[in-house]
Each structure stands twice: as structure tokens, then as C-alpha cells.
Amino acid sequence: MSHITWEEPFCGEGNNCFRLGTDPDGNAYIAVNGQESHYLTDTAEALRTLIREIKAGKADHLL
Question: 39-54 burial string, b = 16+ CB within 10 Å, else e?
């Protein structure tokens, strides 16, 4: 397994914090802050697509 480089935590209202990370192999990771050993992973392009779709409002129905 490659080394994951984590970004600083992103925290929304109520201190719901998560972190994004990448590795040298081009994989992307999402984890709850403080629980980085339990992450979701996919390609960096999949993470970009997810973020774009969320910003476009396609996940608003989940809120």
C-alpha cells in the first residue's frame, strides 16, 4: 500500500470534519477526521467528479 498524504481537515457546521488524501499511484481517499485508517478510496478522477457533482447540487436531496 502506498503512503497517503492527507490534506488539512475540512469542517462543516457542527464540526463534521473530513479529510481528503492522495497517494503517489493516483488514488484518492476520503476519511472522517481522526479515523483516517477507515477510508474510502477511488481514482483521483472519480473524486474530482464526485466533488463537481456535489457542487452542482446533485446531492442536495441527501441533506
Answer: beeeeeeebeebeeee
Alpha-carbon distance of 29 to 5, in angstroms, equals 9
Beta bridge partners of 49: none
If DSSP codes are grouped into helix, strand and coil, which group holds residue 35? Answer: coil
Give the pLDDT band (50/70/90) at residue 13.
confident
Cell 442536495 locates to: 60
Beta-strand relationship, 27-32 and 10-11: unpaired
d(CA 41, CA 26): 11
User: Residue 37: what are its φ and ψ, rounded to 5°?
Assistant: -75, -10
Could you tell me the pLDDT band of residue 54, with boundaries at 50, 70 and 90?
confident
